[in-house]
Amino acid sequence: MPHQEQVMVHGNLCAPGPPNNAGYNSNPVPVIIQTESRDKWSKKMDFLLSVIGFAVDLGNVWRFPYICYQNGGGAFLIPYVLMAVFGGVPLFYMELALGQFHRTGAISIWKHICPIFKGIGFAICIIALYVSFYYNTIIAWALFYFYSSFSSTLPWTSCDNAWNTENCTNYFGKDNVTWTNYSRSPAEEFYTRNVLAVHESSGLGDVGYIRWQLMLCLFLIFTIVYFSLWKGVKTSGKVVWVTATLPYVVLLILMIRGATLPGAWKGVVFYLNPKWEKLKETSVWVDAAAQIFFSLGPGFGVLLALSSYNPFNNNCYRDAIVTSLVNCLTSFVSGFVIFTVLGYMAEQRNVNVEDVARDKGELSFFCAASNPKYLLFITYPEAIANMVGSTFFAVIFFVMMITLGLDSTFGGLEAIITAVMDEYPDTLSHRRELFVLGLVVVCFLGSLSTLTNGGAYVVKLLEEFGVGSPIIAIVFLEATAVSWFYGINRFSNDIKSMLGYTPGLFWKVCWVAISPAFLAYIIISSLLNPQPLTLFDYEFPDWSITVGYIIGASSFMWIPIYMVYKLVWTPGSLKQAPKM
Q1: Radius of gyration of the chain (CA)
Q2: Which pLDDT value is given to residue 571?
Q3: 3-state helix, strand, coil in the chain (%, to 5)
Q4: Which of 287, 314, 346, 483 stands 20 to 30 A from 188 (CA)?
Q5: Residue 146 forms beta bridges with which residues?
Q6: Which one, of 97, 96, 109, lies nearest residue 4 by Cα?
Q7: Annotated binding site
Q8: CA-to-CA distance for 453 and 136, rounded, in angstroms?
Q9: How far is CA 48 from CA 310, 332, 523, in A?
């Protein structure tokens, strides 16, 4: 890993400066002196596309429309924008500035900010591993669909396949179709019985065998990931020119096609029609806060890693604003792609869009769990299958899904790579290819349980407990450590040394008070209103919930463990302890 020279001065465990600006000079912190040995982005656009590609992922593009119509349609944009302006964007800006100034990954950066919080870096890496265990499996599902799309008649169009049951009911192009509580669409049975084979598993206690088809798909995904990351940002920066831009081309094609479908306008009206009374519900504001947080993605170590390869004087403020706007606008525009199709499906079934979108009673468009992720694998593929030129639209749709997922995987694994290699430069600096290979192998092996017949249950468990609350709590501690322990004046002066001007009062207030409160609001709300964990017709047993809490604790526990270690092994009192 590139060698980083640094000027070390005597300090404290957190070395907080005095409350005024003079504290920055009177109590300096380690200053990173840039050297030519650290990798740099070949072009500014490489960095911007990498950040956009990470932030705009499967959940970002397809979860927003689902959350939007659930929480008041056009009215939801008010809490969404407010949460973005006062919570999401300031945290996004903070991480870009931290990474660019200190030029190091999520672990070693705490040597320069507040060493006692170094456990945050280890926790971030563990969470990134959990994400890689299930997220790439979702991309493997998309690759399976992509391969299956190369046929004149898409396999999820009819009920005449080996995996279909007597409950399979196809309503497209037919009149007077009887739909009961037991009816299943061809697309749903293709997904649940042919792709997942979830009917061969009774739950987490019996997940069954590994599906070799999915394992082969996952192997191909990780092969692409390895050869995109093995040489660093100079190779990944080139790959994102395809993976980050292609989804926008496909979205435009699908939006134009959706707009020409009969009934499309009904879906758009339903999408944007504001329900102002929803703004009185606390859950709407919680959903808005959670959506913008997971959409922009602070706390995963990715923004720290990607910005650490920027020139020292790069305008990270402008980058934060531009990429955040692109991210949010992409979410909004994707709603038109989704709801034009929902309007079309409502027209075909001769029902209201609300009945299609809200999964009322017998309508199973979003599966029994009403999980927006399955919109990708049931609702939209079903609509595509009944369009003219279905093979073409299916192919480009799943290419878009694969590229959206790959971008986020690139960012998540680069966060681990940068963090670990910066922490152990003497050992790993000249062994990046081997280290990346080892990491990819670990991620592949860790994903095997998600490839079984009951793998969808494992994906749900990891998604719910491995990432959710732990990452929000970690970002809360990160924002608190930077603003209150490192010091907002010191951090502002860091930005001034890079950009030539100090952040305005708005940003300082957000970093010190509003953004931490924004995170605390999400944490408290999720703890006070726990939701039952279900998937399809399966309700997760109590023992699996306990396992989930253990998974969540396995990442977060390194923060207090490292604090205790630091306090015990650092000589002197808290005020006298030298920085390690």
Answers
A1: 24
A2: 72
A3: 65, 5, 30
A4: 287
A5: none
A6: 109
A7: 53, 55-56, 60, 295, 327, 404, 407-408
A8: 16
A9: 10, 20, 30
The per-residue pLDDT for range 128-176, each reduced to its tens digit, is 999 999 999 999 999 999 999 999 889 999 888 999 998 888 876 666 6
The binding site for Na(+) consists of 53, 55-56, 60, 295, 327, 404, 407-408
538: which strand partners? 535
What is the per-residue pLDDT for 287?
86
Where does residue 91 rank: exposed (0-12), middle (13-18), buried (19+ CB within 10 A)?
buried
pLDDT at 326 over 90: yes
Place of tokens 């997971």: 294
Q: What is the per-residue pLDDT across 353-382, written as a single tens digit (0 to 9) for each?
A: 776 654 433 333 333 334 556 678 888 898
Tell me how many degrees the CA angle 473-475-480 measures, rounded to the nearest 5: 100
323/307 Cα distance (integer angstroms): 13
**Residue in the structure block whose two tokens are 């049951």:** 165
Whole-structure pTM value: 0.89
- Looking only at the bridges linking them, the beta strands covering 31-33 and 5-7 are antiparallel
Q: Is 445 exposed, middle or buried (0-12, 13-18, 19+ CB in 10 A)?
A: exposed
Say if strands 31-33 and 538-539 run parallel, antiparallel, or are unpaired.
unpaired
Alpha carbon 301 to its chain centroid, in Å, reads 12
Write the DSSP string, 219-268: HHHHHHHHHHHTT-HHHHHHHHHHHTTHHHHHHHHHHHHHHTSTTHHHHH
pLDDT at position 423 over 70: yes
Q: Which two structure tokens, joined as six digits, stand for 521?
A: 């609001």
Residue 15 CA, distance from chain mean position? 33
Under 8 Å between Cβ of 159 and 169: yes
Structure tokens at 301: 């170590």
Q: How far apart are CA 404 and CA 402, in angstroms?
A: 5
Tokens at residue 107, please?
């672990």
- The owner of tokens 């994903």 is 447
